[in-house]
Amino acid sequence: xxxxxxxxxxxxxxxKKYFNNKLHPIILIQAHIGIGISQLIFNIARWxxxxxxxxxxxxxxxxxxxxxxxxxxxxxxxxxxxxxxKYIGINIIRTIIDNIYHSSQQGGAKIVYFSSINKLTIEAxxxxxxxxxxxxxxTIFFLNTTNINKVINTIKSRxxxxxxxxxxxxxxxxxxxxxxxxxxxxxxxxxxxxNNNAPIITHKFLNSNELKKxxxxxxxxxxxxxxxxxxxxxxxxxxxxxxxxxxxxxxIILDAIKYLTCKKYKIQNLDQLKLIIKxxxxxxxxxxxxxxxxxxxxxxxxxxxxxxxxKLILTEQIFLLMTEIxxxxxx
Length: 331
Hints:
GO cellular component, one term: DNA polymerase III complex
Protein name: DNA polymerase III subunit delta'
CATH class of the largest domain: Alpha Beta
Function: DNA polymerase III is a complex, multichain enzyme responsible for most of the replicative synthesis in bacteria. This DNA polymerase also exhibits 3' to 5' exonuclease activity.
Helix content: 40-55%
Pfam family, one: DNA_pol3_delta2
Number of helices: 16
Shape: elongated
Enzyme class: transferase
Distance between the termini: 56 Å
Strand content: 5-15%
Number of strands: 5
Radius of gyration: 24 Å
Largest sheet: 5 strands, parallel
CATH architecture of the largest domain: 3-Layer(aba) Sandwich
């Protein structure tokens, strides 16, 4: 059974409560994306549904374990497997309700898991609320969110709330080093920080082409600042997705602001320190803040506006970057 080291205590706490018949049927979890909450709930569900469970482990051999490992267990309702849509509508809730009010097919508990309770529509929220007010016997609801403030108060008031913090940076680094030996500490720490300290997402990032793409992007910016005549930065930047461009540029401007105010403290792009220092030396604090706000506004426009030439808007934003941040007269 795969339990991430930073979630073992939560796993033991919840399974112990169930074993002692003290587990609340509605569990609301607030946690960051990328720290393994879905795996935690899957492991808990597998243990609860196991027909021959031991103290902390499922047997992994009974019919229940086999079915849940194959994602076919009739008493485990993972809403992500049921609905692939952006939002969870009332029909999905009705389907689950119709099933959980019958006896469990394996004779044990019934478990319902929402990986993001914030995806429910208003109608779906209301339907779920009616169920959790008086949940069916031996039925457990796991509701996950990244922002508990967006969960309606009536659901919060009927739940036991678990706040699961991300692991500490040093613990994340140890875990990543064991699995990514080809990278040095600076590379690992950079990858971790630009992925919001989420170890699982960082691990996937390190084992994809994303790090290489980002490095090419950063090298292109540095080369442009050193020798503008020999690189077409605009063409290089426009080869990337709009979302990546904006994220990477915002992070590098933010790091330059951090360098001006508190030197190297909590800089995200640690492997690009030369570039960050160069940008910080030729721009003052107010210029960098203005451009950071401008890029954030650009992101909002590109995300929420329709019937506009998004490439034109982004191109204009890049030209501003090149002329005012990277091409300062003091360089």
